[in-house]
Structure formats: C-alpha cells, structure tokens
What does this fold into?
Amino acid sequence: MTEERDRDARHRARQEFEKRTVFTEIVNLFSLVGFLYGAL
It folds into this structure.
C-alpha cells in the first residue's frame, strides 16, 4: 500500500517536472527568437 502510494507520488512529481521543463523550453525559445529578431 505504502509502496504504491509512493510510486504514485513520484509519478505525479515527474509529470509536474516535465510540465515545468516544457514551459521553460518554450520561454527560452521565445526569448531566443525575440533576441534574433531584435538583432536583425
């Protein structure tokens, strides 16, 4: 029981981490594009 709940918590934490990573990548992409566009 405890093991299953622990695994579930880890899974949720990983999903949350992946969401945050994707969000960060999108922000980085936009700032990079904005920088290149401003440099032109």
Notes: The chain has one domain: 1-40. The mean pLDDT is 92. Helices lie at 2-39. DSSP finds one helix and no strands in the chain.
